[in-house]
Amino acid sequence: MGERTEFEPGDKAPNDGEYTEVGEKSFHTEINNPKRVTLQKGESFPETSNHNRKWKKLTKARVH
């Protein structure tokens, strides 16, 4: 089983890095001005702009 890639507010960051907001179906949902945060391993994710969004590591949030 692989590592989770999307996180809810309050979850702990699995690794150091920059995380950004993504929509529920990130592969076809455009978000204008998504929040970005830089977290250290073990820090909690902050609240998102709305309840339908999740946090995702920036390098994994790109649309193909």
TrEMBL record:
<feature type="region of interest" description="Disordered">
    <location>
        <begin position="43"/>
        <end position="64"/>
    </location>
</feature>
<dbReference type="Pfam" id="PF14168">
    <property type="entry name" value="YjzC"/>
</dbReference>
<feature type="compositionally biased region" description="Basic and acidic residues">
    <location>
        <begin position="1"/>
        <end position="15"/>
    </location>
</feature>
<dbReference type="InterPro" id="IPR025549">
    <property type="entry name" value="YjzC"/>
</dbReference>
<feature type="compositionally biased region" description="Basic residues">
    <location>
        <begin position="51"/>
        <end position="64"/>
    </location>
</feature>
<feature type="region of interest" description="Disordered">
    <location>
        <begin position="1"/>
        <end position="20"/>
    </location>
</feature>
<protein>
    <recommendedName>
        <fullName>YjzC family protein</fullName>
    </recommendedName>
</protein>
